[in-house]
């Protein structure tokens, strides 16, 4: 049993992701332009487009990070995909799910 939340339809989601044949493909210039614009607009240290596989978070586009993937267990997006609406984290330091997360510590 993973130590992070999963969806009731996790196998279906993973199958759909696999069928897209997008994971581990080359960077996309259009997506890179979007993440760069978003990073600049929000004056953020990083901006990512993440795809969540069974055991990792892979970055289809990334600005401000040198790594191309992280373990799923430290992914903020693992929590985002389990939400019905949006995942809003007003203060990651105060949120026990993220306060000791290496990705949060990066900032």
From TrEMBL:
Query: What superkingdom heads the lineage?
Result: Bacteria
Q: Which residues form the GAF domain?
A: 28-103
The UniProt entry, under InterPro entries, shows: GAF, GAF-like_dom_sf
Task: Give me the segments passing through the membrane.
Answer: none
The record's section on Pfam families has:
GAF
Gene3D superfamilies in alphabetical order: 3.30.450.40
PANTHER family attached to this UniProt entry? GAF DOMAIN-CONTAINING PROTEIN, SLR1143 PROTEIN
Q: What is the name of this protein?
A: GAF domain-containing protein
């Amino acid at each position: 049993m993973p130590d992070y939340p999963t969806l009731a339809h996790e196998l279906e989601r993973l199958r759909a992701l696999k069928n897209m044949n997008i994971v581990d493909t080359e960077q996309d210039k259009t997506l890179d332009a979007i993440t760069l614009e978003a990073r600049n607009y929000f004056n953020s240290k990083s901006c990512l487009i993440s795809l969540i596989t069974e055991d990792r978070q892979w970055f289809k586009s990334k600005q401000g990070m040198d790594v191309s993937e992280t373990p799923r267990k430290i992914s903020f997006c693992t929590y985002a995909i389990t939400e019905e609406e949006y995942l809003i984290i007003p203060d990651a330091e105060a949120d026990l799910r993220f306060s000791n997360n290496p990705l949060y510590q990066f900032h």
